[in-house]
Amino acid sequence: MKRKKSSTKSFLFFFVSLAYTQALQTWGSGLFSYFTASDAPSIAPSIAPSGTLNGTPNDASSVRPIFPWNSPFRIKLFWEKGYRWQGSKTEKKWCVTCAETPGPCYRNKLIHIEKCSTTTRQKWMFYNTTGFNTAHNDTVMLQSMRQQDLCFTLVDREIRITTCDTMDDRQHFKIRGESSKFHIKPALKEKACVTQHHHPRDGEELIIDPCKVAKKDQTAYWTKKDKTTHWNQNIAEWSFY
Predict the structure, then answer these.
(1) 11, 61, 93, 125: which is deepest, by most CB within 10 A?
(2) Edge to edge, what strands does the sheet with 158-163 contain?
(3) Could you give the CA distance from residue 140 to residue 240 in angstroms, rounded to a whole number?
């Protein structure tokens, strides 16, 4: 009986050892295949990243972020009691508008004022400049809702609508004031204000004049006509005062 028990123990030990050996070989094979040359991480990526370095794109002038930070709004010429335009004390609502011909908001055309309406040619948005042209952290770019690749651009004294480019200093403006009454000042000429010739008339083109001249003509200020998402956030970020 003792000899039979010893034989049984030897058989069980052999069986367990064999199973353990096979399991170890299988695991080792899998581990080895996991670290084969085809799957192992390379020393350096085969394709260099195309992102940004310290917030600056590799080619900032070619980047066109066309999504707005907020909803569209109209920019209306500010009016208050005591103003007299063209000899009239009655308010006329004039809104910033891009040209209708030869096509709606046509590239390089002058921007002008028209009677405020629901046309999309009067709808504007703040262009997203995050991480681009950090020399203008306190400025905004004004983008057409109708043609979302076109922005306000200062050309000599005129305001035209041209291809949005965050690296174009002529497209950067400073908003000074609150949403109900503010100046629009070109970043390149901070003593000037966006206005139009003397008292407003239908179709009159936007230009820049010294702010003191525009104030004398009662056309130095603008107001936001529509509810705009994140306007208060913009006030904080762009140092409205």
Answers:
(1) 125
(2) 124-126, 142-144, 150-155, 158-163, 206-210, 192-196
(3) 11
